[in-house]
Amino acid sequence: MKQYNVGIIGATGMVGQRFITLLSGHPWFNLKLLAASPRSAGKPYTEAVGKRWAMKTPIPEEVGKMVVYDATADIDKIASQVDFVFCAVDMKKDEIRALEEAYAKAECPVVSNNSAHRHTPDVPMIIPEINPDHAEIINAQRKRLGTKRGFVAVKSNCSLQSYVPALHPLMKFGVKAALACTYQAISGAGKTFETWPEMLDNVIPYIGGEEEKSEIEPLKIWGHIDGDKIVDATEPAITTQCLRVPVSDGHMAAVFVKFENKPTIEEIKTAWKEFRGIPQELELPHAPKQFLNYFEDPNRPQTKLDRDLEGGMAVSLGRLREDSQYDYKFVCLSHNTLRGAAGGAVLMAELLAAKGYFD
Ligand SMILES: NC(=O)c1ccc[n+]([C@@H]2O[C@H](COP(=O)([O-])OP(=O)(O)OC[C@H]3O[C@@H](n4cnc5c(N)ncnc54)[C@H](OP(=O)(O)O)[C@@H]3O)[C@@H](O)[C@H]2O)c1
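A: This is the predicted complex of the input protein with NAP.
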């Protein structure tokens, strides 16, 4: 497989740190440079990230010495050295939209974790096992931007990374409506217990903008390409409540689902077990071998025990049973900064690389 030089924009943040650990030793992607805000620019990475480094493994030695670029002031310098960038920054939405388009127009593709472009109609929002075909909209986007190589592709929100994959193989039974309550880790806010001690022994019933993202984004993922845009699906109706819970990593969801043609419990379990996507067929480096994993033990999945399944790239499911108001209810779990953020973006980049979009 061809080798690609890559950069990380927002390298000092929680998601940026995950990118560093995932790219260390990656078989196709060589981490070439790091960028963040002017606060970090010009400093060696170890100094710029300082005490914020929250990964379990130490900063790779060669990465620690890299001098951090200014993500906005150094766009041309960065674009000239890499084949594409990963982007996860904490900035205002309009600033992120402008920043990502500036990289694309400098002929540097952007694989983004940010929400700013998720509803731009010609920007694909890809879960590689579910809607890999949406990458085809990149041709229309390049035409709009006037680029040959440059484009923006985005990852969806971390809250939905367990229940959208769980519902996807069940769409053949006509999923009419779903209700999901999510129990979300503090790393989803870029925090640890050291930086957010108020979360110890606490639950906060509000995560700004999260419920809207959790309800609307699945419809784009299940949408279809029509000419130069992606048209959202109109079903299923999804309603959510998103809570912040005292957990370091891992978003759990309690899901209720109603079908047009109610399947049996065995049919649902079989659909989960047999589900395979393009990443599994292509054996992409970060593809989990078994994406959806059902646990028969009613005590599972547990955040602490199961979030790291298949390197944090798999989804864990359990407690499937009949419901008195919906047809069924179940629980599902996914690692928010791995499958839900950096890992999902790396898998998307592997898909785009395999399909030639970075050439
Ligand atoms: N954490 C998750 O689980 C998760 C999941 C999905 C999506 N996301 C999204 O990913 C993005 C980053 O999240 P995070 O949790 O990693 O945030 P974070 O830990 O707060 O990190 C933010 C990053 O943005 C950089 N930054 C801030 N202002 C900047 C500027 N003006 N120019 C360039 N870089 C700037 C910071 O650099 P400095 O260190 O120099 O300030 C830092 O590298 C957000 O859009 C978030 O919504 C996060």
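The pocket of NAP is lined by residues 10-16, 36-37, 39-40, 71-72, 88-91, 113-115, 158, 187-188, 190, 336-337, 340-341 (CB under 6 Å). The first strand starts at residue 4 and ends at 9.
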